[in-house]
Design brief:
Elements (H helix, E strand, L loop, with lengths): L2 E5 L3 E7 L15 E6 L1 H11 L3 E9 L2 H12 L3 E8 L5 E7 L5 E6 L8 H6 L1 H5 L3 E4 L5 H13 L3 E4 L9 H4 L4 E2 L3 H8 L6 H12 L5 E5 L5 E5 L2 E5 L12 H14 L4 H15 L12 H5 L4
Length: 303
């Protein structure tokens, strides 16, 4: 079985459901409260594992109840946790999430031990990264760790996939090592400098990003679908229409699903369609990791 190594963050999500998101300085009554394991890296690792890929996770948690619970969760998912280390000085990462009746969310993250994931931690996983089919990363960890992992993977011919969230300035060196980048609309606008108002401007933005050295670009456009620049060929894969409950974790599942499909030999178009099904299931449920579907659920998905 081909392997995916995920390098990224691990958090505990504390979620409150309310009719609407509060304005600055405003207190409103909430509804249901949920506490779930989360973090973009952890979500993506759980997604790849549930969707059938052999998964190695490289991360850092705190030496606390949240960290120990997270590692136990990963092991129950069949994820290789040998490179999930514990920091003795920082707490585990925590995300405070509010979700309204339309499924829109507002998130604040306290990174904690995630900010202590350093290049030396990545070097410990060098053999696993270099023998993977895909390296999947996000930007909730320090950039030196991202760049170190990308360098190891690229030097070994491993496909590097980056979900550039939360968005920040990316070096030309890092961009040149990417097989695939998967920004959402806002992230793509910041990376390209082009306002996306439709498919024509989405293609311009995708080509501007590709011109920086990235081989393939997928811009996620929410309910409109995903705009793909696949080795120079541009096309749209439409999203599936479902009733949205909570969008938390949808993007992470989308990325994990794409990678899971690609390691099976699916084309980019097939992988994005598979990922669209997986993320459509996610938004019909509350929570991040708790909402990620199994492979059987995606294979039997009906819009």
């Amino acid at each position: 079985m081909k392997k995916i190594t995920v390098v990224g963050s691990s958090n505990t999500d504390m979620v409150v459901k309310s009719k609407r998101l509060p304005l600055p300085g405003e207190t409103i009554g909430g509804g249901a409260f949920l506490m779930n394991p989360g973090g973009k890296g952890a979500n993506q690792a759980v997604a790849t594992a549930r969707l059938g890929a052999k998964t190695v996770f490289v991360a850092k948690t705190g030496n606390d109840v949240f960290g120990r619970k997270s590692i136990s969760t990963f092991e129950n998912e069949g994820i290789d946790t040998r490179f999930v280390s514990s920091d003795s000085t920082e707490p585990s990462g925590v995300a405070l999430i509010m979700v309204d009746d339309h499924g829109e969310n507002s998130i604040v993250v306290a990174p904690g031990a995630n900010a202590k994931l350093l290049p030396e931690d990545i070097e410990k996983a060098k053999e696993e990264i270099s023998t993977s089919e895909i390296l999947l990363m996000q930007l909730e960890i320090p950039m030196p760790a991202v760049e170190t992992a990308a360098q190891i993977a690229y030097a070994s011919g491993v496909k590097v996939v980056l979900n550039p969230a939360p968005v920040q300035v990316l070096s030309a060196e890092l961009l040149s090592k990417l097989y695939l980048i998967t920004p959402n609309r806002g992230e793509a606008e910041l990376l390209s400098g082009i306002k996306i108002t439709g498919l024509e401007s989405a293609e311009k933005a995708a080509r501007a990003i590709a011109a920086k050295g990235v081989q393939n670009v997928i811009i996620t456009l929410g309910s409109e679908g995903s705009f793909i620049l696949d080795n120079g060929e541009a096309y749209l894969v439409k999203a599936y229409e479902v009733e949205t409950v909570d969008t938390t974790g949808a993007g992470d599942t989308f990325n994990g699903a794409i990678c899971s499909a690609l390691v099976e030999g699916k084309s980019m178009r097939e992988a994005v369609n598979f990922a669209s099904k997986a993320s459509a299931i996610v938004v019909t449920r509350m929570g991040a990791q708790s909402s990620i579907p199994t492979r059987r659920e995606v294979d039997h998905f009906k819009k």
